[in-house]
Amino acid sequence: MELNDARTQHTHPHLPPPRAPFHLPTWATAPRPEAAPGIYRQHHTPHDPKAAEQAGTPAGPLLLRAALNLAVGLFVYLEGVSLVQGLLTTFGLTVPDSFVISLLIAATVNVSLVIVVLMVFGRMGRWGEVWRRWIAPVLSHAVTEVPPAPEAAPVVDVWAELRPAGDAVRRLEGEPVGDVDYVRLHQAWRTVGSDPAAWREFAAQVAARGGAACAHPSEQRDLPGGRAGRHDLLVRQVRLGTAQDVPKNPVTHRNAGFALDPRVLGTSLLAVGPAGTGKTAALARPVAEALCLQALAGAACAVVVGASDADLGPDDWYDVVIAPGDPEAPYGLDLYGAAPHSDEAAARLADALLPDELAPRAESARAAMQQVVGPYRAAYGRYPGVRALRALLVGDAEGWAELGEQLQKSGRRSEFEADLQQRERMHGRADDPGALLADRLALLDRPALAAGFSGGSDAKPAFAMRALEHPLRVRVKLPERSHPEAARILSRLLLGQFTQAAADRRDRELFAGMVLDDATAAVDAQAVRGVQRLRGANAGVVLLLRTLSDLPEALRAPLFGAVGNRMAFPGIAPWDGRLFSEAWGTHLVRETAVTHVPDTSGGAVRRVGRLVRKALSGTTAQTESVTTRDVERHRWSPSDLAHALPSGHAVVSLTSVTGEQVPPLLVDLRH
């Protein structure tokens, strides 16, 4: 459930219909049974195999079988009584004259026969199921009793966990508290631990601010403009749709709500589908919304990357909005991610600058970048801006002279003398990787973009990816229309910085999530290796692609192996479907084959009869042979994925961070 205030409603086309006002005790005490990954747990009814088997039995055959077994059982009972009497007469046994003993013998015989009939014919006729489904409900309605007085609903203390903080918690009972506040306060209380000073500070905040205590630095207690998705922050789930009741889906997931949470997103997700199939509206936006809500609750940090016109939520959702090319954007981007090691930062930037077709020169480019960035940082105590870096890479004489003087003053020239000499030898040569890097940097050194990367006195405040240890919400708007190649460089850089920074965090309490709306240009060999490291770092990425054909063939299989969750949208190409089909593998399917062959059995009389039948009816007598066997079939074939997926649906397989797997599910993303 969500806060459903009139002022939080908006006209987004994917906004669900208005729901009942938020009631904290009802929401906090709602049943959330343990369930397999991908199941929305709030009010979920776990699958009961016995009930499902009983519900799947048609009423007609069940009642007919029960009646037949009742008739046969009654016949056996009567015959059994007659048989016992006949045996007594045959062997000359007489019933004692005592009425009591005669009654006991008769009762024993009848009870024994009834028990045998119930055990044998009651089991075959499933009388117990007939009783539960029809007879017992009728009897319960027929019996008239005085209805018991309704019991008072038990009083639930939703703040019981915070009671040790003292009387200040009582203030929370008298003011409206939302789900974000509830989760945030409990999250803060758990971080207090047994520190008495932290206890007193927490109690003072609650006493002074009530539900707004320990608030996010933005002071927001919910997303401005309302929510488009359905969230359960208590278990950190976002509901995306409903798993369909089809044979291809596991029985445990059929008709259950489909949801994602950090234990699933921690293995990263790859979604493939053409434009217009709903990847952004049905997947990227709800996940971004969930990460932003969890950040407000102090449980996550979010980095959302997409084109400037992508519908990934309003700017008010985010703490940091980076929009290269937009002069009104308040923040720039640190091209080095505030990396503590200059060689690491330089290598990451060099990888982002080079497109796939220049990958063979990646090693020499990394070395050239490191030979510039390392000495510059040692000399000036900071990383170079785009313009200064470009000048040094191209061999600007004044820049190198000034750099040498600064190194001499800092007393570290001898440490970098080899790097300086190597760069000096390479300047002007045809195979100089520095010139190539300078040409690529020129794409970022445009007047519209330079303010976000220049690093000079007039530069905007720069966001560094090393800030992932805080519950931040970051939106990066890529200039895909005005500067498409620069947008590709930035997407590669952001993904590389995120995987590096998330894996290197000292404090991994917060879940670090990244949503990349178009990951076509961002995926390279380094990114694939970085995504693999996120599983153990409480972090994950959501990568959206239009087609796998946009990636080099050598990267497609490694990318499928690096992510734990794979999602196929309608309309994917058959060659894309082949990779999904191979990744999801095969399963055993029971196949029944019916064979008809001419009947040649019997003697002369039967053969004559068959000839007469053929002459009269024109058909040949045949025998039917039925063969049942288990065969391996693809869970989803490439043809099914390419042509059989209905609009508004997707097929998704899941893997949790603990290794629990869910086979492919057909999900309706519209409900």
Automatic annotation (TrEMBL):
Record has Nucleotide-binding as a keyword: yes
Record field: transmembrane: 98-122
SUPFAM superfamilies: P-loop containing nucleoside triphosphate hydrolases
InterPro entries linked: P-loop_NTPase
Gene Ontology MF term list: ATP binding
Location of the region described as Disordered in the Swiss-Prot/TrEMBL record: 1-27, 37-56
Entry keywords, A to Z: ATP-binding, Membrane, Nucleotide-binding, Transmembrane, Transmembrane helix
Keyword Membrane: yes
Origin superkingdom: Bacteria
Record's protein name: ATP-binding protein
Organism of this sequence: Kitasatospora phosalacinea
